[in-house]
Amino acid sequence: MSTQRSALRCLRALLTAVALIATRAHGAETDRIVAVGGAITEIFYALERQDRLVAIDTTSLYPPQALKEKANVGYFRALSAEGVLSTRPSLVLALQGAGPPPAIQSLIDAGVRVATIPDSPSAQGVVAKIEAVGRAADANDAAARLAADVRARFDELAALRSRITTKRRALFVLSLQNGRPLVGGRGTAADAIITLAGGENVAADIEGYKPMTLEAVAATAPETIVMMGTDAPPPDVFSLPGFSGVPAAQTRSLFIRDGLYLIGFGPRAPQAARELMAAFYPDAPVLSSPLDGDR
Amino acid sequence: MTAVVEPDTTAIARFVERRRRRFLIVASGLAAICVITFVLALANGAVAIPPGKTLHILIGAIVDHAALAGDRDALVLLDLRLPRVLLGLEVGAALAASGALMQGLFRNPLADPGLIGVSSGAALAAAATIVLGDRLLAGAGEAVPFALLPIGAFCGGLITTLLIYAIATRAGRTSMATMLLAGVALSAFAGAATSLLAFLSDDRQLRDLTFWSLGSLNGASWNKTAIVAAIVTPLLLAAPLLGRALNALALGEAEAFHLGIRVQRIKAATILLVALAVGASVAAAGVVGFVGVVAPHIVRLATGPDHRRLLPLAMMLGGALLVAADAFARVLAAPAELPLGVLTATIGSPFFLWLLLRRNRSVWS
Fold first, then answer.
1. Transmembrane stretches, by residue range (chain B) (predicted)?
2. I want to staple B98 with a disulfide (CB 3.0 to 4.6 A). Which of A210, B140, B219, B274 is the partner?
3. Quick one: closest CA in A to B206, which residue?
4. Is residue B69's pLDDT more than 90?
5. Domains in chain A, ordered, with CATH?
6. Domains, chain B, ranges and CATH?
């Protein structure tokens, strides 16, 4: 038992030494950053500091060139310590939830600086992300400008929201495998974006992403269905039992956007919320006017 | 001579009569339980509909369907709850009958429909649809994604079973031992492949996989209920006809053959029926454990091992058990849903243990 443990300790020390030598050999490269989490990569590109990135993860789908230009260390919840180390990073910027924890610990043991960026689906959360990435990317001024811009857009959104008298009832459907809805309840990024867009989440009685009874779908009578989509044509949601009779089916109100855009809470979050708001209130021109300086 | 034989015949006759009476009592009891469960499941759900309104809607559905148009309660009751409860009956009955057939065929109290690979094959196909479906279907039509999973699961289960059957059959004879081992091997392989797919999946797909593997009757529709009925009904009708053959098989294959049972045919027919019925059940409801294994045992404890009686009673109990579990799944966490597999096991297993302890005798006797 103890020999095994000491052997493991030796191995870990050896690996650390190898990793240290590897980093020393490229001592000049202080800015070899690995971004783990789509929103982080997005901020790097928005700050035009993408040259500091050596690798990103598979959730970094925006801007589209990111995954072509940078090495890919895999899915952010299933990182391999060795894979990340092979990119000889000086810093790993990981979105909260990145893991698994042993892989993160191995990175730290190997002498890599790992900074965890909190991921809170709110206006303040996006600003905090931008500021944290700005510090790491040595771009505080650009980050301050971007953060101010994002904050202004959120404030504008809040002003529009205050004019809404009757909130639009919306349901976020994460998936519909075999006609079974998995919906976004309280505490989810889906709930946050609906609220930011001035809507009311009809699944707020549910915590997290959970299956919802079709009866409850019919009873909560959502006026808009919100889904994450790909390039595929929109699924025929309203032909399904439970969905066929809801108010959203009458107006065929289905809002589908890319997942990172819609619930990733990166710098495009105000724009996503604004678009969703326009879909919620199509008859209120004040609310549906396009955002200034659209990106 | 007659003086010696006579008391024996009366003893046997009395035993047969006792068993017959017992069967009638249990059968009528189970029928009552089925009806009560059905009514209660229909009367309860996430949406509260007063009993009077429920009755009104049900009568209205038969008498004047058009008058109910636009009524939300009518939509919930007729389009969501009724097909769901019926689907529960079908799936529960099919799983319990399949379990009883497998236990008889393998002459093993632990046999369940999963033994011939239907469940693991269906699970693998479902996982493949969930994880790879989005990519493969980027250009496909609108309605396809919703039907893809059940169709895939059904085909996956059937293909796996046929493969296992082919492996175990040599020169027109199927070895049950080989079949069992082939089932174990292919199930392990399918399990590994499913895990690989889980590894490749993202958060959303992983959630889908998890909830699918826990089973649910959510997503029931009249279409689904009708399709499952079309596949499952032959099994439900044919199963009791296999009772005599399975009783003979309990003595051993050679003995059954000498009693005039066409053993190979019975094996092939049983396996095909089970594969079809379980495949359809898994496709519609996901993997629902426990019902298939334990419903037949509960009935066996009550009425004895005669398959002619065991099969119809097990179907009734299986149907009632699943409908009851699903009613709890719909109501307990409403508007969310509890996984069905969790409830079948939590409701069924304490009851089963209580029965075992109370009867204090072998399940097989």
1. 23-43, 85-102, 114-132, 144-168, 180-201, 221-242, 271-298, 310-333, 340-357
2. B274
3. A175
4. no
5. 2-152 (3.40.50.1980), 166-288 (3.40.50.1980)
6. 9-354 (1.10.3470.10)
